[in-house]
């Protein structure tokens, strides 16, 4: 491997959100371009790891304060991912079902990062680039450049890709003893707001910073959950590279998860079949325009406004729409969304939970996808929905702004609104209904959006160019 991606998530091994989709696809496209790259991630005890086979590549130990843990680096053997995949197993810490959400997440990810570097230390041929994704691996650039133990790795360029700056992984300096020894005069690199802040440490210590869309890079300078000044200060080494999508996985013509495959030629019957499947399953009227939401039910996605947005839409006789929600997250939002079921039976339904297959069928069968995000570093849902001929309704922010043009603009194909408010989102849904009733234009746009190319090809080569620049530095 010439370069290595480090991440907490990677599809299909473990997925919570878009981070997994990106880390699961980018290396495949880099390898297609001739750049040997692989992924290293924690070994979780989940369905994927139970159903696949691994071979031990390395055994060692990692210390965390006074406790020592066994470490086993396992390589996936029945691998058709398009790149080598390594998992770091630390029994008692990492081998649990979920990726995040445990009280000792700090310990889990610090141990993962140290164990990963211990493994790389003994490589005969060291990687040319170490590419870190989000805060869970944000201490790697610091440790590689400052810890005595990893001195031999200090000339390897490190990259931080920020998928989401809302999450920074702060913890107290009382846990500084988890760190490998380093000259304490460098502690400022770890610190932000009197805490150890892994995301801030990565921004300071990595050779380059990328964000997952160009607009997000600019927005972070004024809205980065406290890191605005730092991101502005480090703009010289930062660049925004818009994510791609894995067009092998997300292809309506071949997708094994949807109820009928289709392409630009049989889009009408293909989408109709998938819509009928959904309407049948969720007891909705297939003759009405179907609006869907898919995603994490959290404030960043504007999810706490969804119950009111949908209630207002459903009470408005002139819109006459069907709505379907797939999501999980904040229990209060889950409950509020579920509670609309009774009053709007036949026009509204929810599936609270995570269901990969259902998400594919919704992208294929819905008419419109609603994304009123407050923060959207890139957003993959809107790009999947384009590819499946579902028109996105988005708040113009971050990656949504970079990928969706409103139908009022020349060659526009989506519906955009300016603010994450109930009023803006419901008006956007009303505009979508008007479009739906102009079937000629609606069908033309559906066909047009399926052709938009968001494959990884160009983004993968942008990353390779950046790697090359850093290697030659
Ligand atoms: P984020 O990473 O912020 O959640 P993205 O738009 O980048 O947002 O990616 C979200 C990914 O997670 C997409 O692949 C989407 O289809 C998927 N997803 C989100 N919620 C669910 C769910 N409840 N069931 C199935 N897939 C989901
Ligand atoms: C994050 C962001 C999302 C982005 C994804 C992949 O989870 O919230 O907008 O698409 O990472 O980069």
Write the layout of secondary structure elements.
Elements: E1 3-6, H1 18-32, E2 37-42, H2 47-51, E3 54-64, E4 67-76, E5 85-89, H3 105-121, E6 129-133, H4 140-146, E7 158-162, E8 191-192, E9 195-196, H5 198-205, E10 208-211, H6 214-220, H7 228-233, E11 238-240, H8 267-282, E12 290-297, H9 306-315, E13 322-329, H10 331-338, H11 340-343, E14 348-352, H12 356-365, E15 368-371, H13 381-387, E16 391-395, H14 398-403, E17 415-417, H15 422-437, H16 439-450, H17 457-471
Parallel strand pairs: 1-2, 1-6, 2-5, 6-7, 7-10, 10-11, 12-13, 12-15, 13-14, 15-16, 16-17
Antiparallel strand pairs: 3-4, 4-5, 8-9
Helix pairs in contact: 1-17, 4-5, 8-12, 9-15
The chain binds adenosine-5'-diphosphate and alpha-D-glucopyranose.
Determine Rg (CA atoms, Å). Answer: 23 Å
Strand order within the widest beta sheet: 3-4-5-2-1-6-7-10-11
Low-confidence stretches: none
Using the 3D structure, state the CATH architecture of the largest domain: 3-Layer(aba) Sandwich
CATH topology of the largest domain: Rossmann fold
Using DSSP, what is the number of strands?
Answer: 17
Shape: globular
User: What summary fits the major beta sheet?
Assistant: 9 strands, mixed
Ligand inventory reads: adenosine-5'-diphosphate, alpha-D-glucopyranose
Please give the alpha-carbon distance between the first and last residues.
20 Å
* Residue fraction in strands: 15-25%
User: Helical element count?
Assistant: 17
Name the CATH superfamily assignment of the largest domain: Glycogen Phosphorylase B
Alpha-beta content class = alpha/beta
Our count of domains comes out at 2
Helix fraction, binned, reads: 25-40%
| Mean pLDDT across all amino acids | 97
- CATH class designation of the largest domain: Alpha Beta
